[in-house]
Write a structure and sequence with these properties.
The complex is a heterodimer of chains A (278) and B (333). With 278 residues, chain A is an alpha/beta fold. Chain A contains ten helices and seven strands. Chain B has a seven-stranded mixed β-sheet, with helices on both faces. In chain B, strand 14, helix 11 and strand 15 form a beta-alpha-beta unit. Classes of the chains: A alpha/beta (278), B alpha/beta (333).
Chain lengths: 278, 333
């Protein structure tokens, strides 16, 4: 089993390293989703370095908790977290988006590297998570399932089909997290197609909801994950109000870095900001 | 009669008609006892697809997903990722059309062990009309890598198909219908994925068929036999993987070939056979099926007549092909 990191300072340091790896791999790939990878970093670090029961040395362990990255475009963040957790060597991050690489542009089911499901087309992941959670319940196994959704994904009708299934079946070994960074491919969500009020919608669909004003704050994410675990008889959603491009000033809250990788100059600036000499 | 020979697992005369979807439901109940990891999902059509029979016996392994076909397919993927064998059922038009992208991304691409068994394919749906008559489902599933596509011809074959796909590792699509199908096989019939069965072997014409059109093709062969035209009838129930060897063998010794299916002539069995023969053994060919059009309301069985999907239409196609061949020969000579 993976040894959890207890101190917040330790988690914050990992988040910094993960950001550096994300930016280097995206820069090397010359394409990919910068903004939505950076916004998810604290959520993924909290999950993989504190919350999930998992074992990078035994990725097929049946008793592991499952994590589904429903917002598959944010996978550079997940690859960086998995590499830092020991699923595969960090050097492999430089194969991101290359032919034949295990680190494809969107995640492909491959337990060797800790990828639990093929995602990238939005509106699938929560259904997959429901199936896993129901399967664990059927087998009376103490397995918890986590799914990370994008806020743009809440525009997909199929997402609401899954949200309804979770509450109807009272799936309480499930926690959905929404990376609410307020930008989608075409721009600011409130201009393209507003989805507010997000927490109220989930509540109306029968979920217990924790609305985190700062979704990049590690202690509050950890507290919400504990609450999720203690909630019985209902699925639990964390609406994490994050900052798109979090951690690098030139990317923060910039809609145009949704699907664009950093160039040479931007990488240099970013690495300096993150305390890493370029 | 012609000199063509009927295989010994085929009944001389087709027997009583049976709802093959009911056979599906009953087979699921039997398999439920044998496979504790079998789960069944359905999208608000449990009485029509007959998965309700499984639901009564195994309520804890039966998941009514409501009118949510996309959610059903990806949920089934989640079950498969945890070692279950999910069967997901609804009408063919929704299973393959509405949920196609969920099937592609979450089932076919990761090669998951999900069995999609649809009912109400083809015009024999009847009165519900064109919105509910899937005529493109074989094409939609056949184009997906990793997907196996099976179209059973009667109740005997349906049971064997369901028992086979549960043992098959990977995704499979099984196409069933609403209407009663005449029983044409004896219990000794064997189904194998990737194997076409030569039900009748002749010399002049090869008829490749699947589903309810197998019975019509056997009828057509009888009529042709009385005229002295000896025909082969091949049940290509395994549309994918397709049995290239058998199809080429039969086509090689035939002057012409006909395909017959209750599906669009584009992309279905006719398309699949044309692909095989175009590359390996080009022959004068006609495809019997829905000619690039939607269906209509009406009595299901009468619609086969309405759309030219009967034995007599196959016979006519054979006549035209043989005449075409004789003309061609005279031109060459």
């Amino acid at each position: 089993m993976f040894k959890k990191i207890k101190e917040i300072s330790g988690l914050i340091d990992i988040a910094r390293k993960v950001r550096i790896d994300i930016l280097r791999s995206l820069h090397n790939a010359k394409s990919g989703h910068t903004g939505g990878s950076l916004s998810s970093v604290e959520i993924l670090v909290a999950l993989y370095f504190s919350e999930l029961r998992h074992d990078p040395k035994n990725p097929r362990w049946e008793g592991r908790d499952r994590f589904i990255l429903s917002k598959g475009h944010g996978v550079p963040a997940l690859y960086s977290v998995l590499a830092n957790a020991g699923y595969f060597p960090r050097e492999e991050l430089m194969t991101l988006r290359k032919p034949g690489s295990r680190l494809q542009g969107h995640p492909e089911y491959d337990l060797d590297i800790g990828i639990e499901a093929t995602t990238g087309s939005l509106g699938h992941g929560l259904s997959v998570a429901n199936g896993m959670a129901l399967s664990a319940r059927m087998d009376k196994k103490d397995v918890r399932v986590y799914a990370l959704l994008s806020d743009g994904e809440l525009q997909e009708g199929a997402t609401w089909e899954a949200i309804t299934t979770s509450s109807h079946r009272k799936i309480d070994n499930l926690c959905a997290i929404v990376d609410r960074n307020r930008f989608q491919n075409d721009g600011a969500m409130d201009k393209i197609k507003d989805i507010e009020p997000v927490p109220d919608k989930w509540r109306a669909f029968g979920w217990e909801v924790e609305n985190l004003p700062d979704g990049n704050n590690l202690p509050s994410i950890l507290t919400a994950l504990v609450k999720a675990k203690q909630t019985k008889g209902k699925p639990f959603a964390i609406i994490a109000n994050t900052i798109k491009g979090k951690g690098v000033s030139i990317f923060e809250n910039k809609g145009n870095y949704h699907g664009v990788a950093p160039n040479d100059e931007e990488l240099k600036v970013a690495l300096i900001e993150l305390g890493e000499a370029a | 009669m012609s000199r063509s020979k009927l295989s010994d697992y085929v009944l001389e005369e087709s027997n009583e008609s049976v709802y093959i979807r009911e056979t599906y439901g009953k087979t699921l109940v039997e398999l439920g006892k044998e496979y504790p990891n079998l789960v069944v999902l359905d999208a608000d059509l449990t009485v029509s697809t007959k998965t309700n029979l499984f639901g009564k016996e195994f309520p804890d392994r039966f998941f009514t997903m409501g009118v949510s076909e996309q959610d059903m397919m990806a949920t089934a993927a989640g079950f498969a990722l945890c070692g279950k064998i999910p069967f997901a059922s609804t009408f063919a038009v929704f299973a393959t059309g509405r949920a196609w992208e969920h099937v592609r991304q979450s089932i076919a691409f990761p090669n998951l062990n999900v069995k999609i068994v649809s009912t109400h394919a083809g015009v024999t749906v009847g009165e519900d009309g064109a919105t509910h008559q899937a005529l493109e489902d074989i094409a939609l599933m056949r184009v997906l890598p990793n997907m196996t596509v099976i179209v059973p011809a009667d109740s005997v074959e349906t049971e064997k198909v369901i028992r086979t796909v549960i043992e098959h590792k990977g995704p499979a699509y099984v196409r069933l219908a609403r209407a009663k199908f005449p029983t044409i096989f004896k219990e000794s019939y064997k189904f194998e994925i990737g194997k076409a069965n030569v039900l009748r072997e002749g010399n002049h014409v090869g008829i490749f068929t699947a589903g309810i059109m197998v019975n019509e093709s056997l009828e057509a062969a009888k009529i042709l036999g009385k005229e002295g035209i000896s025909s082969s009838v091949v049940n290509v129930s395994s549309v994918k993987p397709i049995d290239v060897q058998t199809i080429v063998e039969i086509a090689t010794k035939s002057e012409a070939v006909v395909t017959a299916e209750e599906h669009s002539i584009i992309g279905g069995l006719g398309g699949a056979v044309a692909e095989v023969l175009g590359e390996c053994c080009p022959k004068p060919m006609k495809r019997i099926g829905m000619r690039d059009r939607f269906g209509t309301s009406g009595d299901g069985m009468k619609l086969l007549e309405f759309f030219g999907l009967k034995a007599k239409n196959i016979v006519k196609a054979v006549h035209e092909l043989l005449e075409f061949n004789s003309n061609r020969k005279s031109v060459v000579l």
